[in-house]
Design goal:
By secondary structure, the protein is α/β, with parallel strands linked by helices. It has helices spanning about 1-25, 55-60, 65-80, 120-160, 170-185, 245-250, 260-265, and strands at about 25, 35, 40, 45-50, 80-90, 95-100, 195-200, 220-225, 240, 255-260. It has a six-stranded mixed β-sheet with strand order 6-5-4-7-8-9, sandwiched between helices. A two-stranded antiparallel ribbon has the order 1-2. It has a two-stranded antiparallel ribbon with strand order 3-10. α1 (about 1-25) runs antiparallel to α7 (about 260-265) and α3 runs parallel beside α6. The longest helix has about 45 residues, at about 120-160.
Length: about 270
């Protein structure tokens, strides 16, 4: 898939930059290397669908639970991003459960060691401490807000995941269309690009009358679990994983750790 290739290029670019920094960073008076750029994570936006129809049970589709979803939620709580969870049912029109976490405030840079002048260094240190105090206040507000949102989200998720898999028919396509609507939302509110994933825990057997065409969203990685049957999902060219934990490990892998320069390059700047 083209997007996966592009993501790997971004990762290689980031690793190259890290190597150059280790050789060519700015050295302060104490001999420490000061990085020329600051590293950051690109926020991820991921929607996960789980199949609660009878055929999913027959074909060994894994059961989604709060424990299996916890790593994605924890990742987003630390780095920013958005998680959505939905169901594949006889009529897949249920709204997604969503948790959005804005990118955390970034700590200020300490420039007090850059100056040879003792008085100027002291002034710079005082200014840094003031900025750091402000940062701590903003970080606390960010954490408090997200913890409150997370508790409400988990309560709703547990109720959704407790639904028994007993639906008699399977509406896969409308579930994917809802997920695509989520993933098609603009990145404008993130002030930069996001990485987008759709995890589909289903056998892909669409057997209701509606036949909408499934068109993949640009720059989205589709993942199929358990990946034995694609069914109606062939057009999405999904990556296949045998288990949900393996798929989630892929989504939150170090591939998302990129530099500011790489982010700018991805945006076309």
């Amino acid at each position: 898939m083209m997007y996966v290739t592009d993501a790997l290029k971004v990762l290689l670019t980031a690793l190259l930059i890290i190597g150059l920094l280790s050789l060519g960073g700015c050295t302060n008076q104490e001999g420490h290397v000061e990085p020329l750029i600051r590293m950051q994570y690109i926020p991820i936006r991921v929607v996960t669908f789980f199949d609660i129809t009878g055929s999913a049970v027959e074909h060994g589709v894994p059961i989604v639970d709060s424990i299996s979803m916890a790593p994605i939620v924890e990742y987003v709580l630390e780095n920013g991003g958005e998680v959505a969870i939905g169901t594949i049912e006889s009529v897949s029109e249920r709204p997604l459960l969503r948790l959005r976490v804005d990118v955390p405030p970034q700590p200020p840079t300490d420039g007090s060691q850059q100056s040879q002048n003792v008085f100027l260094a002291a002034k710079q240190k005082a200014a840094y401490e003031k900025r750091f105090t402000s940062y701590q206040s903003r970080l606390k507000r960010w954490k408090d807000k997200n913890q409150l949102a997370m508790r409400g989200f988990w309560q709703s998720v547990r109720e959704l995941l407790a639904m028994p898999a007993k639906e008699s028919s399977t509406d896969v396509r409308n579930a994917v269309l809802r997920g695509n609507a989520f993933l098609s939302e603009s990145d404008a509110s993130w002030n930069g690009p996001t990485l987008r994933f759709a995890i589909l825990c289903t056998d892909g057997e669409h057997n209701v009358k509606s036949q909408p065409t499934i068109v993949p969203v640009d720059s989205t990685v589709y993942i199929l679990v358990p990946g034995i049957r694609e069914g109606c999902l062939t057009s999405l060219n999904p990556i296949k994983f045998e288990s949900l934990p393996s798929a989630i490990r892929y989504v939150i892998s170090g591939e998302k750790f990129v530099s500011n320069a790489a982010v700018t390059a991805q945006k076309g700047g």
